[in-house]
């Protein structure tokens, strides 16, 4: 597999073309950002930890029958993924109240949400990733009705798999975001799943083990990510 020119550079990952038009190389950097890029730092080992963590989760999801863009981990910081037509929509599931839900509705943090909520957001940093709905997606062509239905189905299926996985490891899956694309006509899970894009709390103490440690200046960000991985049985070295 030949790595070629950079196709895209996001907040924490870079994507490169390969000699196969159907495959890309995703490189995880140490960059860490919050508040739409207003807070930005480099955290040593974070790229390696997130790449290994993501590979573990994607394999679990694939085993559960969820189609993903993940092909294989190439190295500590790089993975091979399918080249997809990404939809600019973030699918968010919330099992426990936290973050923007608390700020928007004025509800208490830590409430169990039954059933879990499902929300859509436009992936647009300049506009602050605003909340959207299915009607807007159809009007502006961000996704079709069939794609939206499949994204919702897959997002809840991911919730069932990962909520149990983290629970068995002594953690609460508070909320998370997923991004999807289309590969050869099929809706496929893309991007990554790591503590960067979800909230995870210790089940007993409710200690935060995710990116909120960076957002809130709690420190020990990468160490918390490694602790989550350790509980799941992930080896980082």
From TrEMBL:
It is an enzyme of class 6 (ligase). Keywords: ATP-binding, Ligase, Nucleotide-binding, Purine biosynthesis. It comes from the Bacteria. Pathway: Purine metabolism; IMP biosynthesis via de novo pathway; 5-amino-1-(5-phospho-D-ribosyl)imidazole-4-carboxamide from 5-amino-1-(5-phospho-D-ribosyl)imidazole-4-carboxylate: step 1/2. Residues 7-231 form the SAICAR synthetase/ADE2 N-terminal domain. It holds the Pfam family SAICAR_synt. Its EC number is 6.3.2.6. It catalyses: 5-amino-1-(5-phospho-D-ribosyl)imidazole-4-carboxylate + L-aspartate + ATP = (2S)-2-[5-amino-1-(5-phospho-beta-D-ribosyl)imidazole-4-carboxamido]succinate + ADP + phosphate + 2 H(+). Belongs to the SAICAR synthetase family. This is Phosphoribosylaminoimidazole-succinocarboxamide synthase. It comes from Marinospirillum insulare.
């Amino acid at each position: 597999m030949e790595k070629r020119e950079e196709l895209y550079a996001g907040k924490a990952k870079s994507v490169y073309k390969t000699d196969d038009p159907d495959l890309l190389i995703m490189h995880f950097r140490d960059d860490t950002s919050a508040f739409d890029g207003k807070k930005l730092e480099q955290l040593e080992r974070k790229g390696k930890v997130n790449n290994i963590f993501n590979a573990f989760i994607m394999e679990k999801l694939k085993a559960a029958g969820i189609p993903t863009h993940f092909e294989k981990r190439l190295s500590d910081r790089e993975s091979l993924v399918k080249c997809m037509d990404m939809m600019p929509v973030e699918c968010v599931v919330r099992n426990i109240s936290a973050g923007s839900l608390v700020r928007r509705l004025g509800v208490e943090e830590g409430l169990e949400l039954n059933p879990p909520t499902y929300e859509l957001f436009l992936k647009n940093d300049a506009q602050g990733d605003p909340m959207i709905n299915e009607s807007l997606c159809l009007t502006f062509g961000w996704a079709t009705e069939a794609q939206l239905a499949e994204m919702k189905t897959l997002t809840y299926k991911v919730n069932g798999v990962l909520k149990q996985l983290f629970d068995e490891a002594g953690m609460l899956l508070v909320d998370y975001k997923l991004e999807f694309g289309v590969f050869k006509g099929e809706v496929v899970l893309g991007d990554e799943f790591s503590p960067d894009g979800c909230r995870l709390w210790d089940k007993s103490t409710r200690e935060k083990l995710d990116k909120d440690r960076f957002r809130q200046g709690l420190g020990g960000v990468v160490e918390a990510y490694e602790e989550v991985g350790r509980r799941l049985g992930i080896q980082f070295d």
